[in-house]
Amino acid sequence: MQKQNILPLKKHKTMLFDQFFFDEVDKSKVHFYIQHAHLDTIGTRIHQHKKAQLLYAEGGIVHVFVNDKHWYLPARCFMWIPANTPHSILTNSKTGDLYNFYFKTEKEENDFYSITNIYYTNELLREMILYTKNWSGSISEKDPAKYDFVKAIRSILPEMESNKLPAFIQHPFPKDQKLIDIAQFLMKNIEKNYSIDEIAQQFGLSTRTLSRKFKDNMGMNYVRFLRSLRITKSLELIAENKYNMYEIAMLVGYNSLSSFSNIFQKVSGIRPTEYAQLLHTKKQ
To answer: What value does the mean pLDDT of the chain take?
Structure first.
């Protein structure tokens, strides 16, 4: 994955997530570190750090790759990544912000902090996260007000366990370059209904070979993978709040609102209208 620039919330200044940055994050004397960013094409290479990370998306959708899994971090949700976990981050959303918190690992911790997962953010936690919008860099005990505030954010996270998202927010990510190319093609043409036979012909494969590639590399068939891509795109469109639900259904390749709503519920556990309400209620 190509490394790209990441823009902090303070505009007109570009910061790279490079080794120097993570060296600063991982300094033993630094308990907390903050670096927020605009969701304007963010990308990092696979990396890890000694501190655990909290990612919160306010708008858009963020793709996080952890342990050969592709996770979708939707708007108004946060992801917890334990310390020393290899991962990479990518988003092509043009609006919204990504809030990054890094926390030093403590000797005795709740089991919550050892598990990678994504959770809905309740209104209290969201307001606390947004309060730090203009904070940046290390947070030390020399500034007790900020230090205690960030510590409080970390302390209440285990209470979010009941807000855990269903399993649809992750699936295996293809390592096979041909499947990666196919996934990119499908995302660019997500409104079209390509059959596996058409995709196989498009990419110079037999249907049987392509089916086997999906089974061996992804552990799922073509139809299920395409469905995952469509639901992912719908999450982005719902977060943008520019289209009604019927328009979103058409944009992601469904010929009726009812079929889209049924598939969305089957995959996510809730109706798309309920998800939209969750995202946009009290958003202003």
So the answer is: 83
The span from the CA of 172 to the CA of 163, in Å, is 23
Give pTM, 2 decimals.
0.72
Backbone angles phi, psi at 28, to 5 degrees: -65, -30
Model confidence pLDDT, tens digit, residues 50-96: 999 999 988 777 888 887 778 888 778 899 999 999 998 877 666 77
Q: Are 5 and 16 contacting, i.e. CB atoms less than 8 angstroms apart?
A: yes
Q: Tell me the pLDDT band of 41, cut-offs 50, 70 and 90.
A: low
Distance CA 142, CA 206 (A): 64
Neighbours of 123 (CB within 10 A): 10
- Return all residues near 174 (Cβ < 8 A) that are at least 6 apart: 180, 183, 217, 218
- Identify residue 22 by its one-letter amino acid code: F
How far from 21 is each of 2, 47, 88, 116, 152, CA to CA, in Å? 17, 11, 15, 22, 25
Q: What is the pLDDT of residues 182-232, one digit of tens each?
A: 988 998 899 999 999 999 999 999 999 999 999 988 888 999 889 988 988
Q: Are 185 and 202 in contact (CB under 8 A)?
A: yes
